[in-house]
Amino acid sequence: MKNPAFTVALLYLFISSSFAQEKGPTATITPVCEHFYLHTTATPDQAGGIGAHGLIAETPHGVILVDNGWDTTTARQVLQLIATRLKKPVLLCIVSHWHADRVGGTALFQAQHIRTVSTPLTASLAAKAGHAAPEGILPNDTSFTVDGVKLTCYYPGPGHTVDNILVWFPAGKVLFAGCFIKSAAATDIGFIGDGDLRQWPASIKKMVRRFPHPAYIIPGHQQWNDLNAVAHTLQLINAQEQTEGQQEEEEQQQQQQQQQQQQQQQQQQQRKASGHR
C-alpha cells in the first residue's frame, strides 16, 4: 500500500523544488519512486538548453548522486535543492561518462569535498577534454554498498561514448543508463562523434543480460518513464546506420562520377593533342 504522507511529500517536492531562471541555468528534482529522484539540469550555453538527467538515491543518512550537472552553476543548484528538500549530505557522486552534462560539476564537488568517482577511462577522457576529472577507481563491473544502499557500476561496452557506464540500484530496481540509452521520445540518435555506432547494439545486449528486469531505465535526456527506450534506442541506431550507409553509397557514386569525368577530360585532351601533331 502506498504511503499517503510519502505521496504528498513527493507532490510537494515535484511542484516546488526548482530553481527557475527563464534565460539562465536551471536545476530541478523530480521523484522517480520511493528514495529515488531525478536531478535535471539545463543551461542555454550547452546543447541548446536541453535538460540532462542525473540520479539521486536517498540513503538513511545521505544521498548518492549519479552525474553532477552541466557546470558549476547547475551543480550548485542541485546541491542546494538536496540540502533544502532532502536535508541530507551527498555521500558520493558517480560519473557515468566524460561529457560535460555528466561531469561539469566535478570541480565544485571536489572543492566541497564530495567524493566523485568513475572508471580510469572516464577520468582520463575528462581530463583530456579539460574537465575536472573524477577519481578513476571503479572497475568495469563492481558492486558495493554506501550507507546500507547496494549498487552496481557496470561497463557494457562502447555506445554513446567509449566509456559510458551504467549504475544499478536493486532496492528500487532503478537502472541509470544515462546517454547510453535514448529516451523513448527521441527522434534521432543524437551526437555520436565520441561513440561507437557499430558496437553499440552488442553493448545494449550485454546491459539487458546483466540487468534483465528493471522497473525504471533512466536515459540521459527527455522523457524517462518508458521501458520501451531500449528497443527505441536500437531502432534509432539501425536508422542511423542505414542513413550512413546511404551516404557512403552516394559518396562512392559521386567519386565514380568524378573519376569518369576526369577520364573523359583526359581522353579529350589526348585527342586534341593528337590532332595537332
From TrEMBL:
Its EC number is 3.5.2.6. One of its GO terms (biological process) is antibiotic catabolic process. It comes from the Bacteria. Residues 241-277 are annotated as: Disordered. It is an enzyme of class 3 (hydrolase). The keyword Secreted does not apply. Its cofactor is Zn(2+). Residues 253-270 have a biased composition (Low complexity). It is found in: Periplasm. Monomer. This is beta-lactamase. It comes from Chitinophaga agrisoli. The lineage of its organism: Bacteria, Pseudomonadati, Bacteroidota, Chitinophagia, Chitinophagales.
